[in-house]
TrEMBL record:
Residues 23-354 form the Aminotransferase class I/classII large domain. InterPro entries: Aminotransferase_I/II_large, PyrdxlP-dep_Trfase, PyrdxlP-dep_Trfase_major, PyrdxlP-dep_Trfase_small. Its cofactor is pyridoxal 5'-phosphate. This is Threonine-phosphate decarboxylase. Its EC number is 4.1.1.81. It is an enzyme of class 4 (lyase). It comes from the Bacteria. GO terms for molecular function: pyridoxal phosphate binding; threonine-phosphate decarboxylase activity. Keywords: Lyase, Pyridoxal phosphate. The lineage of its organism: Bacteria, Bacillati, Bacillota, Clostridia, Peptostreptococcales.
Amino acid sequence: MTSVKHGANLFQISRNYNFKKEEIMDFSSNINPLGVSPKGKEAIIKNIDSVSIYPDPDYLNLKDSISNYCNVSKENILLGSGATELISSFIKLLNPKKSLIVSPAYSEYERELKKVNSHIDKYFLKKEIDFKVNLDDFIKTINSDDYELIVICNPNNPTGQAFTKYEIEKILQSTNSFVMVDETYVEFTDTDIYSSSSLIDDYSNLFLIRGTSKFFSTPGIRLGYALISNKAVHSNLKQNLDLWNINIFASIIGEAMFKDSEYIHSVKDFMAKERDYLISNLSKLDSVKVYESKGNFILCEITSKYITAKDLYDALIKDKIVIRDASSFEGLNEYFFRVCILNHEENELLIKKLREIFFS
């Protein structure tokens, strides 16, 4: 099993290299660099004295905001202290004897499945076909065994590959297994094509997870939510979640930021433009293969083999640039690295430093 990593530990890096945290350009953490929604921030400031009261245990205003944002019934919404709490709670409740994970993948899926002693198989995305999925082959694999749970990160981290909602629907139609789709990164792409939220009402075996850490740049508030129409599962999960598991400020900022359409559109436009910029310029580097991505991160492979991802990390850290050595993801070797999208000036500097390394 791979070690649990969630991007760089800026506190540790600043101590090890005697850098100020603010000076570090963190291309390893998949967080929107534009920062939090202005309307969300304003709501926190205006309601700072709410620290002295309990949140609404039903979180009706927050659920209304999410309902309108995702265009789903609020009765199908579950709230969690981050997406990880919902992943853990769902797996614990389902207690699947056999599970299938699309891999490489976020290590928490396997970690939580091991806690319930699930037998875990993996459907590995292959670099030979640019980590794209042969849907018929995937469905054939699902139906080849008695899997109770299929785990899909969509878009996939770290490869950037994504299923369309039509492909997810075909999977749902082809199996009685529960399908858990983690949409942590889906808002960085076209949600009309890639989000499965519109399928919730029609498929009781779909469990969809969203977080706010990445797109809304709010990892500190620990707000996640899940969508599911299966009333029995919904009820059991709700009973097992802690009362007031969402703190008052997470609720307040959530109510506001999901309605901040100007901010949401500006983030989508910025990320699409900068992703295109990075992919275009990374593709021009000698000895680097760049894989298509629908996320806010880009997977790259060093093809010359004269330098590893760790070597590249060590070379860039001197300039206060942190990338992700992707060899910690099962199925990827020591020549894979991943970069995320930062502000344009930082993206330009990354390309400049990589050119110096690969053209030297």
